[in-house]
Amino acid sequence: MELSDVDTDNQPLLGFQSNHFDNDNSINNPDTNTSISDVDVSENDSSKTSDAEEFSFRGLDRRKKMVFLIIGMVNFCACTCFSLLAPFFPAEATKKGVSTTVVGLIFSCFEFWIFVTSPIFGYFLTRIGAKFTFISGIMVCGSCSVLFGILDKCPPNEVFIAMCFACRTVEALGCSAFVTASFAIIAHEFPNNVATVFGSLETFTGIGMMVGPPIGGALYELGGYGLPFWTMGTILITCGFVSFIYMPGQDEGAKTFKGSVLRLLKSPLVVVCCFTVFCSSFALGFLDPTLANHLEVFNLSSLYVGLIFLCAPGIYGFTAPLWGYLGDAKDWTAGMMIIGLFFSGIAYLLLGPAPFLPFLPFTLWLTIVTLCCFGLFFGCSLIPTFTGILTGAKQLGLDESLDTFGMVSGLFNSSFSLGAFVGPSIGGLLQDHFGFGWAASSCGFLYLATTLVVILFRFTSKQGFNKPPPTG
Predict the structure, then answer these.
(1) Which stretches of 267-337 are assigned E, i.e. beta strand?
(2) Most buried among 42, 94, 121, 296, using CB within 10 Å?
(3) Closest to 40 in 3D by CA, of 10, 15, 73
(4) pLDDT at 119 exceeding the cut of 80
């Protein structure tokens, strides 16, 4: 019998023992002629539905509440720390003789190294230890943030550039470690509500990304270059100590490895979901180097431009829990991906607006409404993909173990970071050569092409998005 066939709610959760079978007289009674495996399978079918429908934070036990709150706290503080340098670092780097192109590379190298290392951390997660990987990643990120706050003392040009790249690279390794571990812990602690919990925690991520730039700008005005990094870096290190004390340990079981990231990619469903993740993060990253220049015609202040930038991530952060609930309670993985991809593609065609739609006006209100719509449907397409990759792993016969969850989370994180790395690079290039209208339209075409791929896979694949039936 596979581990996936057993009711996870009746198993020892990450190291805590359960006396369920000792207290269940119907199982211990030989007259019932019922095996434990039979009971587990039937309970598993019903518990998945009830858990998804009745999931609430208040209904969680103390252990699960602690895991949820710690990961949410770390997501918020880390994303605030990562995004706070946007308002002032480019100007400070210019003073050191750094070109705009190199500044862009300093930003994008962060995502590149996450893309490279996430599958590695995912594969070795149970060997290193999920809790250790999570906490050490947080501590590395916080320490690098503090160190980044003294780089203004470096000599200009080559030395400053080299230290920026080194610091951002090490910080990316820490981010890759704790994010990969957090996704795996979520899947292991909440196996029947992965999308719901993932979507809820994305609210902390979205809020952190929203408040990071204004907090960074305010602290910079208050105390200069170093204060934003020292403040948020210290807070993030404190989060690491809190996690060390209160984060429950993980029962990683026997360290047997039955798969790898390459094996996961043998599943067509996994490939389709990873491509969807890449497409979504590509489109989101596309806005970073292009949107501000696109809005120059309206003569807006920096404050208003910053608020417009918050439209998409803000709407995404607050609607992600809804999409997560629908993904778990209704099992609409394929439908949500199709709807989210299609309408996100339409939003990008309106954002330019597309040159082949001359009847659409280029107005500020249309731009804002389009960005809000994109933020709404971005979550609809992205949130179900993590569950889709998990389903693909199950179709390959991989167990529901922390080892599998680690590989799945590493692959998801890598796919997202690849899009976040390529999006700004290709977006700026397309805008320089073809203008914002055609550049945004290319993102729309990518979304619509991905929609077609998901539709074709949904109706032509034998397994599709269906979870494999339990065996026992």
Answers:
(1) none
(2) 121
(3) 10
(4) yes
Asked whether the beta carbons of 106 and 165 are under 8 A apart, the reply is yes
CB 465 within 8 A of CB 388: yes
- Which residue, 213, 233, 255, sits at the end of a domain? 255
Whole-model pTM? 0.75
pLDDT per residue over 297-352, tens digit each?
888 776 677 778 788 888 888 888 888 888 877 778 888 999 999 999 999 999 98
Phi, psi of 162 (to 5 degrees): -65, -40
- Other Cβ atoms less than 10 A from the Cβ of 70: the count is 22
Rounded Cα gap, residues 109 and 114, in angstroms: 9
pLDDT digits (tens, 9 = 90+) for 225-273: 889 899 999 999 999 999 998 887 765 554 555 556 778 888 899 999 9
How far is CA 133 from its chain centroid?
Answer: 17
Quote the tokens at residue 387. 């569950």
- Is residue 40, in this structure, part of any structural domain at all? no
The CATH number given to whatever domain includes residue 199 is: 1.20.1250.20
pLDDT at 20: 37
Helix (H, G, I), strand (E, B) or coil at 258: coil
For position 39, what pLDDT does the model report? 36
- The answer to whether residues 344 and 440 belong to one domain is yes
**Is 185:123 a contact under the CB 8 Å cutoff?**
no
Amino acid making up residue 292: A
- The Cα 388–Cα 287 span in angstroms is 27
pLDDT of residue 209: 81
The single-letter code of the amino acid at 238 is: T
Q: What CA–CA distance (Å, rounded) separates 346 from 443?
A: 10
Which helix (H) or strand (E) element contains residue 319?
helix 311-329
Same-domain status, 383 and 459: yes
Looking at residue 252, what is its pLDDT?
54
**Tens-digit pLDDT profile for residues 36-49:** 333 333 333 433 33
User: What pLDDT is recorded for position 170?
Assistant: 94
Percent of residues in the chain assigned helix, strand, coil, to nearest 5:
80, 0, 20
State which residues form the domain around 200: 64-255
Element of type H or E holding 411: helix 402-460
Q: How far apart are alpha carbons 205 and 377 in whole angstroms?
A: 17
- Which residue has tokens 């039955």? 258
